[in-house]
Amino acid sequence: MSPTAVNRSAAGSPADEAPVILETRGLTRVYGEKVPVKALDGVDLQIRKGEVVAIVGPSGSGKSTLLNLIGALDRPTAGEVIVDGTPLARVRNLDRFRGRTIGFIFQSHNLLPTLTARENVEVPMYELPLRPAQRRTRALELLALVGLADRGDHLPNQLSGGERQRVAIARALANSPSILLADEPTGNLDSKNTADVMALLSRLNREQGVTMVIVTHNTEVAAAAQRVITFRDGKILRDVPMSNELERELLELKSSPLGQAILRGENLPPALAELAPRLHELLEQV
User: Fold this and answer.
1) What Rg do the C-alpha atoms of the chain give, in angstroms?
2) Does the N-terminal or the C-terminal CB of the chain have fewer CB atoms within 10 Å?
3) What is the pTM of this model?
4) How far is the C-alpha of 227 from the C-alpha of 77, rounded, in Å?
5) DSSP letters of 114-157?
6) Roughly how many angstroms between the first and final C-alpha of the chain, as a whole number?
7) What are the contacts of 139-144 at 24+ separation with CB within 8 A?
8) pLDDT digits 0-9 by tens, 127-182
């Protein structure tokens, strides 16, 4: 079952004139001193309000480093990050800014095991001037939004993996963030729960215009986005709009056993041998 693709014609889809909500300029991150490693190398990027953008690439290509920098979890060696018109370098209290502007979804849900689903969703709201009753009402509304209206009093160990990730999504939305960052949000889920979570994220984008940046190794998840940005060696290799079904099907072919066989050049049916070099070239560009 493939994840649900976002509806590009829906209200949640960004028009060409939508404002830029996230921008990086010459973003660079170097780790180490004696043997410096350049995890990001002069990345220039713009993401518009309401977009769903997938970040893909091999391990070590700079994907998670990018997410940490635009999420104000780390500081760049050079360059700048601008979120919703605010340069992060000028923000005095990054914790407060992050808590009110950016929502995070991680591969591991990171729910507090001694708190109920509702209480976990309430945690980010302590940054806001809300009364306990207001926090409770907001948390219950968000749990209903993600399809868990009847699970608010359950502890994380009483929930399935897919349900725990839905609680994590509700928590990420607690403070109505300008942008949602997801690092391998389906990495620990089976195919059915992956499809369910992506359908939920697509619905949030479609109905509420939530801007999302999703780091993933799953090409089916990437195919559900509006843009796919490929990183390699700390740089943007490709930035491709997913404007039609054929582009999404190419991504799915790349992740399939046949696509992997074409890329490796082995175990191909004789009928494909003549076409294999061209198919290899095509899939490498996806």
Assistant:
1) 20
2) N
3) 0.78
4) 27
5) TS-HHHHHHGGGGGS---HHHHHHHHHHHHHHTT-TT-TT--GG
6) 21
7) 139/170, 139/174, 142/170, 142/171, 142/173, 142/174, 143/117, 143/118, 143/167, 143/170
8) 888 899 999 999 999 999 888 999 999 999 999 988 998 899 999 999 888 899 99
